[in-house]
Amino acid sequence: xxxxxxxxxxxxxxxxxxxxxxxxxxxxxxxxxxxxxxxxxxxxxxxxxxxxxxxxxxxxxxxxxxxxxxxxxxxxxxxxxxxxxxxxxxxxxxxxxxxxxxxxxxxxxxxxxxxxxxxxxxxxxxxxxxxxxxxxxxxxxxxxxxxxxxxxxxxxxxxxxxxxxxxxxxxxxxxxxxxxxxxxxxxxxxxxxxxxxxxxxxxxxxxxxxxxxxxxxxxxxxxxxxxxxxxxxxxxxxxxxxxxxxxxxxxxxxxxxxxxxxxxxxxxxxxxxxxxxxxxxxxxxxxxxxxxxxxxxxxxxxxxxxxxxxxxxxxxxxxxxxxxxxxxxxxxxxxxxxxxxxxxxxxxxxxxxxxxxxxxxxxxxxxxxxxxxxxxxxxxxxxxxxxxxxxxxxxxxxxxxxxxxxxxxxxxxxxxxxxxxxxxxxxxxxxxxxxxxxxxxxx
Length: 443
What we know:
There is one protein chain. By secondary structure, this protein is α/β, with parallel strands linked by helices. Helices cover 28% and strands 24% of the residues. The chain is built from 12 helices and 24 strands. It has a 5-stranded mixed beta sheet with strand order 6-7-8-10-9. A 4-stranded mixed beta sheet has the order 2-16-18-17.
């Protein structure tokens, strides 16, 4: 347990850890490339280390350069993955994805075309998350993926298609999901013709950007009239290793944006934060609530980044919905905390995806805000928050969810009395030094 108390004004400069989504993909595509990929700014959180562990079991050498967040991936090529015999049981290599849904879902697309079989699973949380959303489109390409529990969840038995290969395919996804899209595009590297994914709205596009940088033929566009988004990939004979600079994770920056906004007299400079438009909905939503966020410097790279200066400001309610949701789905718990401190009503809708994250985040956010005295009503696809509550310290049940733990650590900064997180260590999944860094700004 961790006990937290109200905070002094937050002041200072901080560089948040590297983007989790981009760190995952840099290791994955570096492993599939020919040559060496040097990654700077890599996030050494538990989820990304699960990705590294999986590829090491597949014969990929991954070296860490001490505390510099520099990682060297020695690629094996698209057809060069070779399972370590130590992890083969009953003819299939066992891969443990820990708590990482990203690793689990994208690996489905990478493993389905290989020349070996895999049993893919993680911890109890990962093994309870829905995988049919990936299994179904990959089966349409000719992949063989079976839920060993028979419930559409991991652990999954993936029979490598090998030389028989996967086929050209066009898939219309019912949800905007970067993990689903990424799994299909990765499988499309090995298909016998073009593979495309149409989404109801544009999900984060890190996979498309990075695959292009590694040499794949990937195209993406917004459909006429804004009726969804299309991503298409053509078969690829090789990827080429290259340097990758990982920007700061905007999901991690979101906690400081919220904290500086709600704690009086705060002023925090966040350096090198990724502001990819498919991820930067947090900035749009926070500004719609009245947050004072200034871009003081831009960095021009494959993944755009910026220095952000955030000052305390009076907040007001807003509506968060529609196409904005995929661009801030992971930031909704901390946005809900901001809404509880804002004047007026905030409505979050079209966010049913929250139910299938590490926890049912509609339930966990609602229950913990209620415990702190906020006025919040859950709905089927979000919540309604009547703001300007005088938050009270409470026992917070994180349910092992890193984003719940960090969001309510932010809430504790303005709560009356002590707040206790029943499991604070889960933050290490994405931000191992979070509590230390947060406390450092309040000195």
